[in-house]
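Hi all, long-time lurker, first post. I run a small reading group and we've been trying to get comfortable going from sequence to structure in the token notation. Rather than ask abstract questions, I figured I'd post a concrete chain and ask someone more experienced to write out its structure so we can walk through it together at our next meeting. Sequence below, copied exactly:
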Amino acid sequence: MEDLSDEEFETILDEAIDQLPAGVTDELDNVALFVEDRPEDGNTHLLGLYDGTPVGERGISGLELPDNIFLYRDNLISFAEDRDHLRSEIVITIVHEIAHFYGIDDERLHEIGWG
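-- Answer (accepted) --
Happy to help. Here is the structure in token form:
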């Protein structure tokens, strides 16, 4: 897929966020979404990353650091065949990373079709 401008990517990202399954973000608390060009280690296959403490592993103090979800713009664009596929992959990636917030591992995500 051709290179997209930042504005075009943002438009597709906004459309993808609007297409997230109902309820998937309802219980998110203290989670930020960031878009970076690529992972720090240069990985060209990683589309997204959850960085935080899953809900089931949190202490009772409520003093957890904010959780972060990263989307890797360049990797998503390289992976996608066209704009519709990019939008779909962004939805899948966000849902996948939110699932990690809820403590669902990669194996289970693949079993239920969000891997």
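A couple of things your group might point at:
The chain has a mean pLDDT of 90.
The radius of gyration is 14 Å.
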